[in-house]
Amino acid sequence: MQIVKYSEAWKDKWDGFVLNSNNGTIFHLQKFFDYHAPGKFLFDHLMFVDHGKIVAVLPGELKDGVFESPVGASFGSIVTGDLKFLMAMKLVSTLLDYGRNNGINEFMLTSAPIIYQTYPNENLDFAMLWQGFQYGPHYISSAIKLDPNRDIIQRFQSTVRNNVRKGLRNEHISVQISERYDEFYPIIEKNLSKHKVKPTHSVEDLMRLKTLLPESLKLFMVYYRGKAIGGALVFLCNKQVALCFYNMMMYEYAEFKPIHRVMYEVAKYATENGYQYVDIGVSQDTAAENPMTPNTSLIEFKETFDAKTVMRNTLRIRL
User: Fold this and answer.
1) Residue-wise pLDDT tens digits, 288-316
2) What is the DSSP code string of the chain?
3) pLDDT over 80 at 195, yes or no
4) Residue 121 domain-assigned (yes or no)
5) pLDDT tens digit sequence for 20-48
6) What is the pLDDT of residue 214?
7) Residues 57 and 37 in one domain
């Protein structure tokens, strides 16, 4: 086995491997990275190749001796197929040898939560810990475990249940899967400005992503008398999980509880289309000095939708 630096000639094989892997997501695809402007990141993606065949991939960036994954994406770390224990050990030892031989001083790898795996498998995490990696920051995410045999609304907290039902009865409120990013983006900006935060993406970024991955982005818009009052942009990350990346509303229409209504619609869509989870995203206090500081009120809000905590874990090693 050897590690080979990614080049454009491997693009189709890389993306094909990710799409058929056990733990890959759209955030590991080269097609996803193409939405970034050229030169924004100095990507140094790596491939584990055995007898000319990809057996694992690791997207990331090498900067000042530190290899970090993800960069320019939500999830990173090593993507594998159905990974046996001894292969996991070999992948990690091969990576560490590559780092020592190529001037890498540190690896810092953050993977998707375990719910993104088709078959839960922690061989890789153990192999990394056994060979010297240690845990870095952990980030709290909240996910709803979907179940087609359970009524979605009944799982919500009573206040949320009542608000969803009221919205469903209101003939002036509708939810549509839309292409109107031009309507949604101002809501994102206004919503986040209340928290002194800027959107991760520009509207041009979102349109570019929609062009590159048309089946992987679903925009749910909430309308009141034809006016956009909220919405949720969902990334269909893999066959397992739908990630609610932006979930926003216009606060002047808060009385109609657009977030409650759109979360119901997202959970309903994901359940009907065979997904196992809806990930509602991380809940950290971005104003705190410690990046792990939990935003308890946001976590409690997500729990009203029967969401449970899952973690985005970082493993790091200094060579």
Assistant:
1) 889 899 999 999 999 999 999 999 999 99
2) -EEEE--GGGHHHHHHHHHTSSS--GGG-HHHHTTSPTTSS-B--EEEEETTEEEEEE--EEETTEEEE-SSSS--S-EESS--HHHHHHHHHHHHHHHHHTT--EEEEEPPPGGG-SS---HHHHHHHHTT-EEEEEEEEEEEEP-TTS-HHHHS-HHHHHHHHHHHH-TTEEEEEE--HHHHHHHHHHHHHTTT---SS-HHHHHHHHHHSTTTEEEEEEEETTEEEEEEEEEE-SSSEEEEEEEEE-GGGGGG-HHHHHHHHHHHHHHHTT-SEEEEEE-B-TTSSSTT-B-HHHHHHHHTTT-EEEEEEEEEEE-
3) no
4) yes
5) 999 999 999 999 999 999 889 999 999 99
6) 96
7) yes
Give pLDDT, residue 78: 98
Q: What is the pTM of this model?
A: 0.95
Same domain, 178 and 298: yes
When divided into structural domains, the chain yields a total of 2
> Of the residues 108, 132, 156, which one is the last residue of a structural domain?
132
Q: Provide the token pair at 10.
A: 């491997």
pLDDT in tens, 78-117: 999 999 999 999 999 999 999 999 999 999 999 999 999 9
Residue 55, domain member (yes or no): yes
